[in-house]
Every structure is written in structure tokens, then in C-alpha cells.
Automatic annotation (TrEMBL):
<feature type="domain" description="HTH iclR-type">
    <location>
        <begin position="8"/>
        <end position="69"/>
    </location>
</feature>
<dbReference type="InterPro" id="IPR050707">
    <property type="entry name" value="HTH_MetabolicPath_Reg"/>
</dbReference>
<dbReference type="InterPro" id="IPR014757">
    <property type="entry name" value="Tscrpt_reg_IclR_C"/>
</dbReference>
<keyword id="KW-0238">DNA-binding</keyword>
<dbReference type="InterPro" id="IPR036388">
    <property type="entry name" value="WH-like_DNA-bd_sf"/>
</dbReference>
<dbReference type="GO" id="GO:0003700">
    <property type="term" value="F:DNA-binding transcription factor activity"/>
</dbReference>
<dbReference type="GO" id="GO:0045892">
    <property type="term" value="P:negative regulation of DNA-templated transcription"/>
</dbReference>
<dbReference type="InterPro" id="IPR029016">
    <property type="entry name" value="GAF-like_dom_sf"/>
</dbReference>
<dbReference type="GO" id="GO:0003677">
    <property type="term" value="F:DNA binding"/>
</dbReference>
<dbReference type="InterPro" id="IPR036390">
    <property type="entry name" value="WH_DNA-bd_sf"/>
</dbReference>
<protein>
    <submittedName>
        <fullName>IclR family transcriptional regulator</fullName>
    </submittedName>
</protein>
<dbReference type="InterPro" id="IPR005471">
    <property type="entry name" value="Tscrpt_reg_IclR_N"/>
</dbReference>
<dbReference type="Pfam" id="PF09339">
    <property type="entry name" value="HTH_IclR"/>
</dbReference>
<keyword id="KW-0805">Transcription regulation</keyword>
<keyword id="KW-0804">Transcription</keyword>
<feature type="domain" description="IclR-ED">
    <location>
        <begin position="70"/>
        <end position="246"/>
    </location>
</feature>
<dbReference type="Pfam" id="PF01614">
    <property type="entry name" value="IclR_C"/>
</dbReference>
Amino acid sequence: MANSASGDSVVDRVVRVIEAFPEGVTSLQLSELADRSGLPLSSAHRLVRQLSEHGLLDLGAGGTVRLGLRLWELVNRNSPTLALRQAAMPFMEDIQQVLNQNVNLAVLDGWEALFVERLSRRGSVANRARIAGRMPVHISSAGLALMAYQSRELQAEYLEQFVDPSGKLTAGVVRHLLAEAAQQGYAQLAGVVDPDTWGIAVPVMNAKRRTVAALGVVVPLAEMRLQALVPALQTAARGIGRQLGD
């Protein structure tokens, strides 16, 4: 790919354009898009026009740029999490029917939990997890459940670089949380993100006993019932694992 004067490739610039859209925002003015992507207006306009020809972006009247339906189609059709979401959905729906609270599904991506599915109902407690949203491992029960079942080498690498921006947690505390989750078979965090909620998550393992996801719920502190929640989640996680196979 040809490089720009700044040394970045065409692919780099395309990614910067698409990443410029903030979470929850589907349209931007071309000038704002150029500013957010750090590109000259002329370069941004040229890339947007080319991407719109493929349906990945939509360039409207007045310089409004929107994410294209073609982008959504390609991402969802070929997503590596598609089989996981399809296998998990019936079990997630069953749990939601019983609890009437938030149910989420996450995978590990770097040092973050990436949420690939979420079910919620009106009246559910607050839940910061969003589909395609991320949370650091140490502040989400799903993240802890995922990291607790990774290899010792990966955990060591994670703990070595760990820094809590709030300054409240040390690597030693997180190491204890991971060991506790591995021993108990589930991870729990109370009031970390929202003071009135409790998150519980369990690992989802495939036929090779490799942890591929975490299944979790967020419930009110006042309705916390570990003795009922954990077995239900673990049963669902085993069912998802059987559907996934290898």
C-alpha cells in the first residue's frame, strides 16, 4: 500500500477513518471526521468517497458521513463470534426469563473483556456492558472469569503490565481475585462499576476445555443469591460449550 507523507499506509488511514466514529455515534460531519482521524480534509474526503463506493460509508448531503450498512453486513456475517453468539443465545434467554435481569457474553481481547452479546429488559439494573463495548479485566466479573482460566504465562504477562488508573488495586490484589475465581469456578464483583449492582460470571469452555468466553449476569445487590445464580450460569455455560464443540 502506498504511504502518505506521514508514513502511514492506506489501510492505516482507512482504519483511522472508521475508528473516528465514537461509540453510539453513526454519523459525523466530514470536517469533524477528518479532525478526529487526524487526516487532512482532502485526504479524508477522498477516502470517504472511495469507501462509500463500496457501501462501507455513506456520504450524504451537506458533508454528513454515516457508517454504511455494508460494513455492518460484512462484520456480522463473517464475525468469529457468530457461532458463539448463536450457541449462547437460547441459554442466555432462559437465564433472562428466570432472573429478569441483564445477561451478557464476553470474550477476552488483550487485557479487556469485549462484550459480544447482551440481553436486558426494562426495569433491569444499570449495566455498563454494551455490545461491542469493552471493559478492563479487573473491573468486570466477565473479565476476571476469562483471565482466571488462561495459561499461567498469559496471566503472568497480564499482571506484569497491570496498572490500575484509579490507584485502588495492585497486581497482588488482582492475582488474588484471579486465584479465587479459578478455585470457586466463578468470578464476582460487587459495586465496582455501579455501587448497587453485583456481577457474577462463569467461564464457557469448548470440548477441548479451552475457555472461549464468559457468561455473566448483573443483578441488584439486594437480590444477590449466589447459591441459585452460580449453578444456573454454570449449567448454561456447559450447554453453550457442548453446542460449540471444538
